[in-house]
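Entry for protoporphyrin IX containing FE complex. Fields follow.
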Amino acid sequence: MPLLERISNNGLPVSVSLCGLAVTIVVVAALLQRRKQAQRLNVLGSRAPAYPSKLPLGVDTLYKLVRHMRQDTFFEFTRELLDNPGRTVELNIPGGRLLLTDNVDNIKAIQFTQFSDFGKGERTHKIWENILGDSVFSTDGPLWVKNKDELRPHLAKSRPNDLEITEKHTQRLFDHFRRGEPLEVYDVIDRHQLDIVTDIFYGESTNSLVEKEQPFRDAMDAMLRLASVRTILGPLAGLFPDWLFARKAYMELNAYMNTRVDRTLALSREELLKKEQKMNLMETLAVKQPDRKYIKDQLIAVLLASKDPVAITVSWLIYELSRHRDVFEKIEREIRDTIGFEKHPDGEALKNLPTLKNAVKETLRLYHPLGLNIREVKADTCLPTGGGADGQQPIGVLKGEQVAYAVMSSQRREAVMGFADVDTWDPCRWENWTPTSSQYLPFNIGPRICLGRVFGHLQMEYTVARMVQEFDRIEWCGYAGAAPDDEPMRIKIELNTKFDKPIMCKFIPRSTA
Ligand code: HEM
């Protein structure tokens, strides 16, 4: 009997039966593929413990990951998952295996010793296509090397007027602080950093601290929020394209960038070259390759790289300073004894503020802003350790699989840090503790090391030093009704490591204290 006839004879409508058949075929094909992969993996090495899934293809595991992400318990969940001898776990989700690790030897292999085995990969490129295009953050191989080489001269140094520009926007930030009302710290710090980096790298600030409407910032936020969920969804991300699910943001982002890039492209090469040392990044890129998409991709990547980690770290730092008056006062004493409260610090002056430096480093340890990162396996290979019953055996990984590594989690492990109070913010520990590059790696190690680490440190230290010069204290004001004030602040993983509740603080100026 023909297949269709047999299906219709079992009493179900043909469409339902066909649907069931299609699902069965997909599931069987996936199971067969997994069996083949298991055979290849056995040849390569051991396996990490697998997180148990109850539903085919790990649909329930994916659901749990998304749920924990939405409930801001993702960080706690990953710590739970990694609580095994090899600090590595295998998650089977639709689209394939995802390995998660905070084992420092594995992190070192991914970032450095086996760099060529792990890349950003096609999947990341596809998911981030409409935000990062072909930029340094989303490419591998020769294109990534070219991108990095072109950005390095501009990002790896700070320019003579960087602090002047920073000060202009810092004054605007302080205008908000001086209003005397509790304010949401991250909101203004994020705008502050956006205004600075667009001023420095684009040559035109968004001025979001003084403008009422912030369409560009809102658009970027909407695109990033969607992209972080799409990253978890992996191969299913294609079902939720950003140009459709964040249409307004997608249009706004493009309109904003195109207008600015086109304005620069309208200048002749000679006009641009005349500016010599004063060329901003947008102009430098326009001279190198006068192509709208190329310039736009690089600039958005730089904006993302330079704004978010700095703004997030400074916000966590203010949160902690508002709760640690002793540390605030120690920084205050160091400022009083060196530059005083009138003169603005320069790079040299900041070097003489050890407690401020330690506070920044401790914040990067405890709240690493890029806490979780992901790589695609480029060829069948092994992670050096974390497999087998003892958690010491190499783990086989297959080309195309995804490996996520959690630096924030490794920087909070007692066995790695060498002290017990790993979850406590304590800048003073740095007076007697110099971590190795396996213990503390906020800027990555190896070829993909952060290009803006000097600029980033300068921004963070300058902003906080100026804050302590101008303000007598920071008062923590609870969560403004968003949650009971005695609830701990949780970490919200939204691409970066943010806060699940608003950081509400009041800044008391020195003159009125
Ligand atoms: C708190 C401040 C910062 C932290 C913690 C930080 C951290 C990082 C990390 C962990 C990476 C590696 C990302 C990956 O491998 O996927 C990275 C890459 C990068 N960072 Fe930063 N960053 C900071 C500030 C900055 C600033 C201010 C800039 C620009 C001025 C910048 C520019 C870059 C660039 C261009 C890359 C890409 C490097 C590559 O893929 O080759 N970063 N950063």
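NOTE: Residues 94-512 form a domain with the Cytochrome p450 fold (CATH 1.10.630.10).
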